[in-house]
Design brief:
single chain, 314 residues, mainly beta, 8-stranded mixed β-sheet, 6% helix, disordered C terminus
Length: 314
């Protein structure tokens, strides 16, 4: 028995070789006659006669579907001796994902179960992989993906792929969101001179995003407080002092919180004094903020006076 393999939706041609001794010929599907000679016996418009010659008797089934799969028989009558030849029609079907898990949100440490069901002929191979720069290869070659004690690094998209070599693989993705409490990754003390602009930064990672609050000692700083501005973003908060005064110096605490917990970090806004040597080596040759140029000029004037007094003795 010969096999004829076609993909769903294509046309299948069934051929039967004959010679001049043939008196009668027919094509049957199981026990149903499709064609007898030039006469069509079936009502299916997709079945047509292709050739009825001295050497070949062929029919074609158009727009093939899975229910067309099975055995077909060419029956030939030769000098009152019937002969038959059989063909088995195989219908291949492209893979199709019929069921897949919805996007999921879970707390860190929980267990995740993802499902991907697909159909096709032959049965498709199903694989799961994590769409991540750190992920390598497939993490599951099954319809089900189980993750025990999930971590924040395992959040992201998971792709299900179904393939059976009939057509290109079909893929669908599931987004897994891993929730975890805030973790402050960046907070450092800052030195600022009096009268200058000062900034304290607090960076925190969290899912959902953290809410930020600022405290000086034990007093919460209110939004819009005179001389201050608080700017909160998804993963950071910035506390700005527009004109730092002596009263602004001290210990500040950033508190980051979400539904899963909170954390805090302390930092200090301290007075910064900048001193640097100038090309002048004598007394008073010190650069001090905005008054540096005035002090250098005073140094030259003080040195000029003793030199004039010494000149009178010679």
């Amino acid at each position: 028995m010969d096999n004829v393999t076609v993909r769903q939706g294509e046309s299948a041609t069934l051929r039967c070789s004959v010679d001049n001794r043939v008196t009668r010929v027919a094509w049957l599907n199981r026990s149903s006659i499709l064609y007898a000679g030039n006469d069509k016996w079936c009502l299916d418009p997709r079945v047509v006669l292709l050739a009825n010659t001295k050497t070949q008797y062929s029919i074609q089934i158009q727009d093939v579907d899975v229910y067309d799969e099975g055995p077909y028989t060419c029956s030939v009558q030769t000098d009152n001796h019937p002969k038959t030849s059989r063909v088995h029609l195989i219908v291949q079907v492209s893979p199709k994902i019929t069921e897949i898990s919805s996007d999921i949100s879970i707390n860190e440490g929980g267990n995740v179960s993802l499902t991907c069901i697909a159909t096709g002929r032959p049965d498709p191979t199903i694989t799961w992989r994590h769409i991540s720069p750190k992920a390598v290869g497939f993490i599951s070659e099954d319809e089900y993906l189980e993750i025990t004690g999930i971590t924040r690094e395992q959040s992201g998209e998971y792709e299900c792929s179904a393939s059976n070599d009939v057509a290109a693989p079909v893929v669908q993705r599931v987004k897994v969101t891993v929730n975890y409490p805030p973790y402050i990754s960046g907070a450092k003390s800052t030195g600022v001179p009096v009268g200058q602009k000062g900034i304290l930064m607090c960076e925190a990672s969290a899912v959902p995003s953290a809410d930020f609050q600022w405290y000086k000692d034990d007093k919460r700083l209110a939004e819009g407080q005179k001389g201050l501005k608080v700017e909160n973003k998804a993963f950071s908060s910035k506390l700005t002092f527009f004109n730092v005064s002596e009263q602004d110096y001290g210990n500040y605490t950033c508190v980051a919180s979400n539904q899963l917990g909170n954390t805090n970090a302390s930092m200090i806004l301290y007075e910064e004094t900048t001193t640097a040597l100038t090309p002048w080596k004598g007394p008073g040759a010190v650069h001090d903020g905005n008054n540096g140029a005035w002090r250098r000029g005073g140094c030259v004037w003080l040195l000029a006076l003793p030199l004039a007094q010494l000149a009178r003795h010679f």
